[in-house]
Every structure is written in C-alpha cells, then in structure tokens.
Amino acid sequence: MREYRPALFTTPIKLLAPGYQTVKGVPRKIYPEDGELIWCSFKTYGGTERTVNDIYAIEDTAVIETWYRPDIRSDCRIMLAENGAVYDILNEPEDMEQRHKYCKFKVQRIKGGA
After folding, report:
1. Spatial CB neighbours of 39, under 8 Å, sequence gap ≥ 6
2. What one-character-per-residue DSSP string does 34-94 give?
C-alpha cells in the first residue's frame, strides 16, 4: 500500500486557537489577532452560491492539507498570512492514515456585514 502524499505546502497561514472567557456563566471564545505561521496546501473551488431567506450569498470554502498538529481543532480559525482573510474550520481535522504525519480539513470564509 502506498503512503499518502499531499500537495506541496506553498501557502502561509496562521493558526488562531481560541481562549475562553466566562461572561455571566457562559463560556465565550476569544480569538487572538495573530497566530503561529504554518505552511499548507490551500485549495479553493470558487465558492458555493446559496439563497438563504431570499438573500443571495456566496460561501467561500477551501480544503487545507498540512503537517499534523494536535493543536489544530475544529474550534480554531485559520487566517491567510498574505491578505488576512479568516476562515472557520468546518469539520474535525482528519489525521491521514492515522500516522500523525499529515492532516486535512475543510474551511469556510467568515464574512462580516448583514
């Protein structure tokens, strides 16, 4: 059986791991402004067109492959180092072949506004 080989890691991203603060008994996530630099393979597919409550929206999604790190979790965010675009991790990062060598996960762009 061949070993899994990801694409080249040419895109710099920053990992934004949340801290938690309790406000009136409810834990809230607090994300840092900057994070640790990680190199990855970042692939987008043009976004997904959706109509929600008669409002047309495009969801930017991407697939990221990088070195395995146990601190990359589903509650973290990813920021592109070049332009500062912030993405939420959609699913639990997959440990490829359970070897703790590479991981793969999907992200979705966080957009402000209405």
Report:
1. 9, 10, 11, 12, 13, 66, 67
2. S-EEEEEEEEE-S-EEEEETTEEEEE-EEEEEEE--TT--TT-EEEETTT--EEEE-SPPE
Backbone angles phi, psi at 49, to 5 degrees: -85, 135
DSSP β-bridge partners for residue 38: 13
Question: pTM, whole model, 2 decimals?
Answer: 0.83
Q: Are 40 and 64 in contact (CB under 8 A)?
A: yes
SS3 19: strand
Amino acid at 53: N
- Amino acid at site 90: L
Identify whether the C-beta of residue 66 lies closer than 8 Å to the C-beta of residue 40: yes
**For the chain, how long is the longest CA-to-CA vector?**
54
What confidence tens digit (pLDDT) does each residue in 46-78 have?
777 777 788 777 788 999 999 999 999 999 999
